[in-house]
């Protein structure tokens, strides 16, 4: 997977004007007498001009260009997809609800999650087949192999991923912040993920342990990749209404692609009467192909390079800087950003480690307690996946109606209740129990689809701009360093002969604890106001560093050329579209 080395080029008059006078685009969040919509996000979309002199100098209401819009406008187009490949991105394009234009990096996010969805889903197919092979070799699910019960193999792997990621993700965030390799990190991690899934095609009774190692490695790089992509997310827009739209659409597209993928696997497995192992191999092969296409296209043609945000301090190297920055960032967050601090503490108990932790528990529970085979688990998965779509739509509306913080709380409560109902009413492996699993899967899907877009939107709102990768590394540290605790509790109970129902029920305890902690965040509007000024500072710093570290500036070095093209006040976005400045 190659990494493009882009050179900025001509941009039109709107962007160059923004670069020459950054504050001419926006009056600021705290201007005396200005009117700010508290629901608009950390950087309001518009600002009222307070003096007649200012009014005569520029329009009263103007939309500020985001970093992603500037990066697209400043691209030469040299590394855009050739025309004969561009049809690949058409199904993944998503419009900005304010400008009604397509943005390359927004399309890149959609293609990225479309690749991750089937890869995540493959974990349930391969995981279920793998632990059955482990149990067969051990002589039963409760027999010991490699020092643990065969039924604990999947959850132990999830713990290893969580602990390793928690220790190293802050370094990854600092590496991206202190170098210009954000895009390279995303590209390389995507490549390793695809290779790890591809090697799972070798799964059989003799290789299951090697595949378990590869799945563990792939799980680690999946978390690393998520940190890299999350660093691009705040650059899409400064308006939370737009951000809520983007995050909901990203999740809806992920679930839709994941649902189509799972439907194909189910259809083939039932019509051809495949075994558990054959179904897992089919899923691994399909997800490898989807990942190679979507990851490859997005990271070669759509995501743009970013200049380094900070220099390595004198006397330090990138390794020591990463962990030193973790301490510095922790002190700043805990000392200055109350809402972000408590949100991060809440994530200690929320299943953001996501899905990986919950997936390991769910697959183990369904395989050994409910005695579902891979195809039955796939039916439950697809029921859940298509229910994710209305959940994401609920998230989009609730973020706007009651703000992302309250939306996140409501989704966590729903998730906890549904999980508790599963533990309380699914009591065995009868057909009735399996039917209950299918029913609860639809409710769980709504909760998942609601919770994660709300969480993404809330994180973007609370993080000071210009420190995204660094703080995302810190958030990952908090989430991963204790994020393995639910799977640890489940595994410990299982190893000591406690029913898996109680291990599953413990997940609800963690979710409710997370929800209660968010009430320490304080007032949501106050939290937005606290970080509003950082958006302007980040934009100015981005323009300055782009000009210093590139052969040609995204704006400043081409201002005269852009000015010569007219006074229409527009800049180019994706090919064939315009962004009004």
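Sequence proposed for the structure above (581 residues):
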């Amino acid at each position: 997977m190659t990494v493009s080395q882009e050179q900025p080029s001509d941009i039109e008059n709107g962007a160059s004007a923004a670069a020459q006078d950054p504050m001419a685009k926006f009056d600021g969040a705290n201007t005396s007498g200005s009117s700010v919509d508290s629901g608009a996000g950390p950087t309001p979309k518009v600002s009222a001009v307070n003096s007649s002199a200012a009014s005569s100098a520029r329009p009263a209401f103007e939309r500020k260009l985001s970093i992603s819009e500037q990066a697209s406008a400043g691209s030469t187009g040299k590394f855009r997809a050739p025309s004969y490949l561009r049809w690949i991105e058409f199904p993944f394009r998503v419009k900005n609800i304010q400008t009604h234009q397509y943005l390359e990096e927004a399309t890149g996010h959609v293609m990225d999650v479309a690749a991750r969805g089937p890869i995540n889903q493959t974990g349930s197919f391969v995981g279920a087949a793998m632990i059955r092979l482990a149990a067969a070799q051990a002589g039963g699910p409760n027999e010991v192999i490699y020092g643990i019960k065969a039924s604990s193999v999947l959850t132990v792997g999830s713990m290893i991923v969580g602990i390793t990621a928690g220790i190293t993700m802050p370094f990854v965030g600092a590496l991206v912040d202190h170098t210009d390799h954000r895009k390279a990190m995303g590209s390389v991690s995507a490549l390793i993920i695809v290779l790890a899934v591809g090697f799972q095609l070798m799964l059989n009774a003799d290789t299951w342990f090697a595949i378990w190692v590869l799945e563990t490695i792939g799980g680690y790089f999946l978390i690393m990749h998520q940190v890299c992509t999350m660093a691009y997310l705040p650059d899409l827009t400064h308006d939370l209404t737009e951000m809520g739209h983007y995050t909901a659409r990203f999740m809806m597209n992920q679930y839709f692609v994941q649902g189509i993928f799972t439907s194909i696997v189910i259809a083939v497995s039932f019509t051809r009467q495949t075994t558990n192992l054959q179904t897992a191999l089919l899923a691994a092969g399909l997800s490898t192909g989807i990942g190679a296409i979507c990851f490859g296209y997005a990271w070669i043609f759509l995501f743009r390079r970013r200049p380094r945000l900070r220099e390595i301090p004198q006397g330090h190297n990138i390794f020591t800087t990463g962990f030193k920055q973790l301490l510095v960032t922790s002190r700043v967050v805990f000392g200055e950003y109350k809402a972000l601090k408590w949100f991060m503490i809440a994530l200690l108990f929320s299943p953001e480690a996501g899905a990986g932790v919950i997936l390991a528990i769910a697959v183990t529970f369904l395989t050994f307690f409910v005695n579902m085979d891979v195809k039955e688990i796939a039916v439950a998965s697809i029921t859940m996946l298509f229910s994710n779509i209305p959940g994401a739509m609920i998230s989009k509306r609730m973020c706007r109606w009651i703000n992302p913080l309250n939306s996140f709380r409501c989704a966590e409560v729903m998730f906890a209740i549904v999980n508790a109902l599963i533990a309380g009413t699914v009591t065995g492996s009868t057909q009735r129990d399996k039917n209950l699993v299918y029913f609860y899967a639809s409710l769980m899907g709504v909760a998942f689809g609601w919770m994660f877009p709300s969480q993404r939107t809330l994180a973007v709102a609370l993080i000071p701009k210009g420190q995204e990768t660094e703080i995302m590394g810190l958030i990952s540290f908090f989430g991963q360093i204790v994020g393995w605790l639910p799977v640890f509790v489940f595994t410990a109970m299982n190893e000591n002969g406690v029913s898996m129902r109680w291990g599953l029920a413990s997940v609800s305890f963690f979710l409710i604890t997370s929800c209660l902690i968010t009430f320490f965040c304080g007032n949501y509007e106050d939290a937005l106001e606290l970080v509003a000024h950082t958006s302007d500072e980040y934009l100015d710093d981005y323009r300055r560093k782009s000009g210093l570290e590139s052969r040609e500036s995204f704006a400043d070095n081409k201002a005269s050329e852009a000015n010569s093209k007219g006074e229409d006040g527009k800049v180019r976005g994706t090919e064939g579209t315009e962004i009004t400045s």
